[in-house]
Amino acid sequence: MTKTKVREVTIKETSGNFIFLKGKEEYDFDGLSALRKILSKEKARLLDAIKYKEPGSIYEVAKILKRPFKAVFDDIKLLERMGFIEIKEVEVKGRTRHKPIIVVDEVIVHLKI
Domains (ranges, CATH) in the chain? Predict the structure, then answer.
């Protein structure tokens, strides 16, 4: 049986602003709307495609989702920064591809006020 990997997201209010905490790092939020952007329908589709279609590259994800490469790349980089996915460099026929891999099974959100 595999162990469930959990990603805890902590958001705290400080001086009228919400701060996203990742370990000891802090990321500024423009309020809860920024959290909604992270947990948007497109991000859910992207995570679903990575998990169940197992694409070999970011380009393949864009093709699966029928979205522009730049938009998918930006979403993947954001999810990587937030600790939801990792990018693994894979050598295929002499070319380096960047394969996105989900590193969590569950996300728990804590909101401290």
Answer: 6-112 (1.10.10.10)
